Structures
1.
Amino acid sequence: MAESNSQTTSQTLIDGNTLAAKSLAAYGITHMFGVVGIPVTSFANRAVAAGIRFIAFHNEQSAGYAASAYGYLTGRPGILLTVSGPGCVHGLAGLSNAMINTWPMVLISGSCDQSDVGRGDFQELNQIEAAKPFSKHVGKAKDIKEIPKCFFEALDSAVLGRPGGCYLDLPTDVLHQTISESEADSLIKSAVDVSEIEKGAKKMSIASLEVERAVDLLRNAERPLIVFGKGAAYARAENELKRLVESTGFPFLPTPMGKGLLPDTHELAASAARSLAIGKCDVALVVGARLNWLLHFGEQPKWSKDVKFILVDVSEEEIELRKPHLGLAGDAKKVLELVNKEIKENPFCLGKNHPWLEAITKKTKENVSRMEAQLAKDVVPFNFLTPMRIIRNAILEVGSPAPVLVSEGANTMDVGRAVLVQTEPRTRLDAGTWGTMGVGLGYCIAAAVAEPHRLVVAVEGDSGFGFSAMEVETLVRYQLPVVVIVFNNGGVYGGDRRNPEEIAGPFKDDPAPTSFVPGAAYHVLIEAFGGKGYLVGTPDELKSALSESFTARKPAVINVIIDPYAGSESGRMQHKN
């Protein structure tokens, strides 16, 4: 009789890398950004095998900015994967950017073996403590069985309540531990179940009495104004805003990244009369925008001392901090649904001949006319206005779906904010609440991945472009439909702007701290990787480059030579209208 084998059957084992990938996929994650290496390369490969697209960068900082913008554009957590130690530190740039802008993101970093902590292991760092100041949640999987729970806690925390950045630590030894596939599936199911309960418990209720008070304030206002920001954009509140504006006839003012929720060309848009609108309004409904430096803290002299703020924010803490006349805590879209419902029961509307609307319309026309007169001139060598007008017209000619505009720089971003026109929601990404430079290429890649049906157009200063310029190779590698336009004026603000008395000392012959190599051939950089580069210095050259690159929808860099004396030092946004 033949000898029989044991009746026990071995179960399939999976390691921590596979379980981590399966956990992300189970949550619905479809994209990751990052830079791989020890100990997370296998995790990235398993994630790709699980159906998650991994976009590999050259630098964790740019990858982190991409993850943060992806979270904003999609409403799902943007995922950044880094190695331990310095990789994690580089990733903190993106994590902090997400936290300040209140966008959902999770930074996942490998870390050293737990048994070697404190012994000076390879790239050892207490990453939990390093990440805490920039996170609304930090977690660490200390055993393979904790991976699904830790992943879902971080992902949920990123999106629930006020969105923000979260950190998750994956020690090397945990990634190498194994578990049966059946137990892994059970742990993931349990994490899913807990997550659903958590989401249900976090749903906010909005007091109907507060909504009634808000509507009464709006109804009795003599000079009302609606202000909305990227929080309203994140909440997908554009339809509710449109209904509110058009049913009441109230003028509106978007913050820079709120532009496009309603078209900049709307007859009730007050952006071109900003100083008048905020300086004279008596009731301001502020939706998804914080009363921080971007809105002059809601204080004099920019605002009237008697203005009554109605603040709509997902965070009760934000409302308590700002101490408005009335606060409505909740999701912007849901709050506005209730406001519109309340107004519908007893409608009111400012007529076009109302003195407040007439004043704003008059000031808007004056300022637009003044700006258009400047834009109409073809100035060569280029100032900032001439190429910006040509770019504006080329973007508008694309039609719908409108391109996503990425804007960073000093003068380039400031002028672009006034000149470039947004017609659709979430089509403008810029330096944001923190005024972060270096976000450009990361944001471009995030937009191209999150909105594959849209062209992405970056309008960058040469200084801003320099932070992440190497990522043009990433554009080419993934063949993303991104056109990067670099305003090349030879440095920060435009090269050497020193007064004669400042040019002194033993190193006075060095280039100025604000200077770059004059006439830098930025367009050649992308050509090294197989992309298309353009060098332009006249209106016809720029028009031709834009037409060709927009039609091709392939990675391109347009190097626009600007008069180095055309710009000025720029810090906080200057609104002179």
Note: The two ends are 98 Å apart (CA to CA).
2.
Amino acid sequence: MASAAEGGEVAAVAGRRYWRWSKADFFPEPSFRSWRAYGGALLSTAPRLRDRATSRSSEAVEAGTLLAQSENPLRRCLSWVDLAFLGFGSVVGSGVFVLTGQEARFDAGPAIPLAYAAAGFSALLSSFCYAELATEIPSAGGSFSYLRVELGDLAAFLAAGNILLEAVVGAAGLGRSWTSYLAALIGRDSDALRIHVPALADGFNLLDPIAVVVLCSTSALAVSDARLTSTINSLASVVGIAIIAFVLAVGFSHFEPANLAPSFFPFGAAGVFRAAAVVYWSYTGFDMVATMAEETKNPGRDVPLGLISSMSAITVVYCAMSLALVGMQRYSEIDANAAYSVAFAAVGMKWARYVVALGALKGMTSGLLVGALGQARYTTQIARTHMIPPYFALVHPRTGTPIYATIAVTLGAACLALFSSLDVLASVSSISTLFIFALVAIALLVRRYYVAGTTSPGQLRTFLAFLALIVSSSIGLSVYYNSGYARRWPGYVVFAVLWAAGTAGLALCAKQQRAPKVYGVPLMPWLPAMSVATNLFLMGSLGSLAYIRFGICTAAMLVYYVLFGVHATYDMAHSEGQTASAEDAATNGVEQGKIVPVSDRGC
């Protein structure tokens, strides 16, 4: 068997070069070989949709058979320590510096630590669910693969489209914010480093080439080597930890308990929950760590340790940082736009604003770096299934990274970052993130309580009835909280009792059909059911614009799926070799020259 060619140019399949560009690389499926074939595929759309909507993938396909589509493997060279730092780097960005002051001032008051605790609790619940699924299905696709296995092809496609959209928009927003904080660091106006073009419409007339350079630089580092990227992120995270330690030390050394009075809840419990829905975005990004499972040496041990340890530590840090802020300065005097800088200035430390700006820059850089890793892996797995052209699944034989997928995501983010203002980007709400987290929790319940061919019809009906009660009561609680009856407690009792009845019914009446192989979520089914409830509750706190955007984007994705995705995935699913076991599939792929084995040396 030939090894990877010198210089990394020759891929594994019959001497094919990695750097290539042909129709066959983008549209290799029979449905796209000619216009006549495509016309025939369109005529068969209805039965193909039924096939895809009712089909579920398997661990063997996601973690084995599909690897051949990349021609070269991703390298297993990461430990749980690497994953913990990647989790820290992906989550701890500028959000805590920007959102804490805004929400303390207008929504939560001195109770802002409780808002972070509530949001952190929800994020931690989701991380437990991700941890079990990542050990069971150690695929680069993360939640996309989990949903394909447990909820089917169509649900996974809708999830994938929304996650990729949020990833591109989020990266663009971080790039624009990076420029703003750089300007603050050198004492300039936030738009001083942007190019004003009067001929363009408002919101698109401040060009940001610095954001483009930052995005391209972090992505270039990400494609060079995953191990190197992880090491650099770990070193940067140490700097970030030092800055956070400085903020905490100064904050608590100037802590005044009187600043928490006269009322710890000036906006009531409702204000705390509104703030929790907003600061939740300070926790997003941990799901990108799950996409690194395919490159982890021991995913069964390392993924749970990395995910849960990083999210637990981050929750504690966020609560402490927010408490330090409201202890330094009364909430009514906090500057919503530059909370920590103004608070430091109020205690005679104006120079500390540079430390804050440096901390935010570091956080955003780490977020972009880890985001470039995770987003590319996500795109790679989606391309392996042919939902998007398989060209983007190719892994470079020398670097062991998905260069084409990284370039595609980076170009999309760079185009948005160059033209679109932060206000425009912010209008594309992250409702998709909560939606995906809720689906992942549901997928975990499905995995534990339903096994095709094993679960009896009666057991399936019992499971579906209690699952429907959990989901409907969670939605009902969210709707009730945002209705005109929100101040009346009986409604909360009713929905809470219904949720508890559904969860207890699963625990007592529905038999678990599958035991976790390595790591299992504790308190099953209570913990994933609580994750469903908290994510749906926070979704209800978002405005109508988020749901309009979600509906429009979902409709556009469905059009793409009907015209392209369903036919490509149908051809792929019905091709040979889709039923092999994961081990056999990977072995056969190597034997047939479809995958080049890459040693762990150099990792």
Note: Residues 166 and 200 are 25 Å apart (CA to CA).
3.
Amino acid sequence: MASRGCAGPPPQRPPPPPPQAWVWPGKMLAVGALAGFWVLSLLTYGYLSWGQGLEEEEEGVLRAQAGERPEPSITASSQPHLIFILADDQGFRDVGYHGSEIKTPTLDKLAAEGVKLENYYVQPICTPSRSQFITGKYQIHTGLQHSIIRPTQPNCLPLDNATLPQKLKEVGYSTHMVGKWHLGFYRKECMPTKRGFDTFFGSLLGSGDYYTHYKCDSPGMCGYDLYENENAAWDYDNGIYSTQMYTQRVQQILASHDPKKPIFLYIAYQAVHSPLQAPGRYFEHYRSIININRRRYAAMLSCLDEAINNVTLALKTYGFYNNSIIIYSSDNGGQPTAGGSNWPLRGSKGTYWEGGIRAVCFVHSPLLKNKGTVCKELVHITDWYPTLISLAEGQIDEDIQLDGYDVWETISEGLRSPRVDILHNIDPIYTKAKNGSWAAGYGIWNTAIQSAIRVQHWKLLTGNPGYSDWVPPQSFSNLGPNRWHNERITLSTGKSVWLFNITADPYERVDLSNRYPGVVKQLLRRLSQFNKTAVPVRYPPKDPRSNPRLNGGVWGPWYKEENKKQKPRKSKAEKKQKKSKTKKKQPKAGSFPNCHSGLTHG
């Protein structure tokens, strides 16, 4: 099998040639030569990328074409192009500028030329971070406080929430999503194209095979998960690695869009979430990494880094870059058992320790006033909603109660953040801490409940915060993170409250809950105040109708609105007759096509 690169084979429809305004007077011959070489590279290398992996001479020519010449003179809208890139499960340490052994030259360069957000928070798992980004609201205000949206659940982001793309469309933006949705799909109304996106190309579930795009949620519950708008994208099932495939689609969108008109691109890569898969050539630099999961993870991240480079070059080539704002964020902390590293932070994905919720993030844009800086002000993923709407010259209805703040001046100009606290979450149905009680919470809060809150420098956790070890890089042996090398914490009997000064102790090594009971009480009261505004948890049981075997082998909407409509009451005899007819109509269980065997489970 041929080696796969991260920008992929050429799109089915090649991009239009550069407009005449791009031609430099007196240099027609040089441009012609470049154009000829570009076409040749499409045929030879089979992809629309000008990233790493090419020979130096060829790369230099293509960079001269894309990156080193001035952008075409375009009368840009005052509204900036908004590019939000969300990585999946990237650990806090897993970027070059945080000291990682994994090479991320693109991310390092973009961050160094922009603003690094070093006090930036997300949620500990996928669905919550994505829901808060797209609504600007905490989980307690959307009913998604608990876990993730499972493929078999009749659940999705509540339809009464105005989404970010919907607000941007109101002010003239073209809105496109590429990548992982994971905000529910049981009804057609829940699909991305019904929630504000003009186009959608990607997956609906939380994970799946990077090449086949299949996902098994459980034995007998397997299906295809790649969509083009509202239909299964069978035509794109060519065994293309998803990072490559998504980058190629982004290039197509930019090639066909008028840069004079504002665009919102939400690129939610599947990488570096498990299953750990990557094209072979990305392993070359990581043969020295003994642990196989870490090595695969490193290869995946290198491929992602190259993809970001190709997206950036496409923005420059097609005339978007000078009026664009690029935001890069991870959705949660890394998972050490799947190759990720959050060192020196405590904990991992799925926990409310810093390793689960403190994320890699930066903003890169020619529109920034203070470039090449580090922002240590408090910023949360909910803040992107009002920030981007404000940048787009949009309006937020006064009756909408947001939890996010407009932080553009904080990022661009270095001003103080309007945010002074973050409700990390309150999950009333998570497994209760055995030793938690109202008494331990001074009668203010039941500390058996899993919750976490940050107020200025202070962070309070109650209940069961999750796996709490520190996992140093040297612990990645050939058998996985070796817990004998971890700094393990045995939770004290009766412990259900923790207090840290995160500014002074970002690694959560010194619990101050006994030393400062007054601070504990203040934060417990704040938790109680937030809890009064919470809506009921939405976490319905599994619906057997979700089985892809009942939907042509595809994961997709299964709920029909007519199922809810009340029908006229019938007599008992009519009901019995109806029931017998229904039984006759039901097909046998074996009549549905089986899922592919031997699929990689996400």
Note: Residues 1-5, 8-70, 563-602 have pLDDT under 50 and may be disordered.
4.
Amino acid sequence: MVEPQQKRVKLPPSGDDSGGQLLPRRDLEIIHAQLIRKCLCSLQLPDILHTLSVCNDCFSVHPVAHMLRLRDETLLYISMLTLFFEVSLRQQSRGVLCSRISEVVAAGADNEGAVLDILFGFVASEDKYVSYSASRALSSLLLMLRGRASELVLEKLVENLAVSVNLIEVGHSIEVVRRVIEWKDLDEHPLEGTESDSGQPLECAKITLTPADTQGANEVKYVATKKLDCKWFLLVARLTQLVNEFTMEREHVIVSFLTLWESLISVKANLSVTDTKEFYSGLERLMTPLTRHTHTVVWRKVLDLYNEVLCYGSTLALQDVLAEEPCNLAHLLIRAVKDRRFLECVPCGGSAGNRSQSNQSPTLDSSAGPSSGTASGMDQGDRTILHKVVLVVLKAIAVTVKETRCDSSSENSSRSGGSGSEDVDMAIIERSLREVVRKVDDFVKSKLPYHPEAPMAEWMVRLFADQDDWLVESMVCGLDIFTGLGIRIRQQPELHACVNPHTTFLEFLETIYLEHDVLLDLLVSNETSFLLYLLRYLKFIRRSWREFASHCGRRLEEVMTVLIRLRFAIDRLVSKNLFPYNINPVLKLLQKCEELYEVGEH
């Protein structure tokens, strides 16, 4: 191979290391510094391999406990390995690799077993910093392995999860698997510039990889799901036991496992439905340990998991037929709220307190803004749990209504006749949901100083006002619940008022101070499901214009002014070809609502 024309950095002999230490610290520092530049071309291949060989021999011959006397050198070695694997992995995913790094990878392939043994030994170390650092290195190395080697590593990791008594080892083994599951081919660091910018120095000798050489990490993700699948029942059983016997020493294991579980079922992991189906089993086993005595950390992570399963705004709301697993969880939550006093067990302190003050306002007491928790004796952690539990119950209601409508429609479409079956189903659902909505309403008003007569459609905007994605998702849920219940909801004035989407929209506009620019920002952003909400709500306005106009009353002019200004702002962006997607369906609906307003149909 033709070497690049440049002055090479010569590694000093390892025997010159001061203090007679076993590890060549200065050599490691030089390699580390070059890896930060994402290129090793300035170093001689034999020198790099010699340094790595000396380190590997030291850690293979001497017990880990003995080597931890050289803790700084050990951490430097692990850090160098982590950086090497991460730089190599990122360059492989882009298809352009430093030639010297490629040579080191090829030369070290025969010795990867020894490196893996060393890293597994460090993961089991009682030193938390060494164990954590080794887990980072191991996850990056694992993503580079292929075939049987990756299978063996994942089998050992999953075995650690199932049977190891070393909680540090268990927790960090979980983190290794989670990083593999969450890894993305083009996951950019904000300081690395654009995707096309590799960040390598100009003098770096690069080689171009074939497309087949850049896809290996996805294979490892697939193998990881299969290995977890095989032992999933045992893993959930162990997690349940740890939760039931919670101690602070076990907290990091519980949190890590629940985070892994959330990643496995998240759409962001880019795993197929078939690959993740098994991981929906066991969700019900986490409900039993949730009592008023359960630690708040467990509550938060379980609620995160349940909210991910019931990912309504970006997933379930868009599906014509819902899968069985999220529906089962929704039913479980509704039964827990309705019959098991689930909300009474939620560990969020505080109470509504001074009702006489809150009675002066139809919404939130003026001293408590959207993100204030101290006004009711509730800290930010308690308020977060309150947000999560209210949101997951709203999602459960929306999923149940949508499932019932889908099932009834399927039955009626397969036979002639009326919608009697649907009426019976919806009557049963409506009675249960009315009770659940009442309990959620009472629960929130017992914690925060909302006016006793404020409907849920109003206070949920105030509740989620400081979290855009939760706010929009709750609004989608409320709209779908109202439209899903159909004509039946109009026969129940109390339930009608609780989830009336017109009340929600007016309160939302009040919260954003009638600024159409905020609506535009939400439409352009990909962080919420506001496009879905606005599209469905505008269709709802078009179908029930008179009801909308009547509900707005004297505020109709200012509401329509916001919508008309929004249409103008969208038109300007579209005319300059600056809107990031096809917004025409929303534009047409805005124009239709404007026409209804101008002809005076109100």
Note: DSSP finds 28 helices and two strands in the chain.
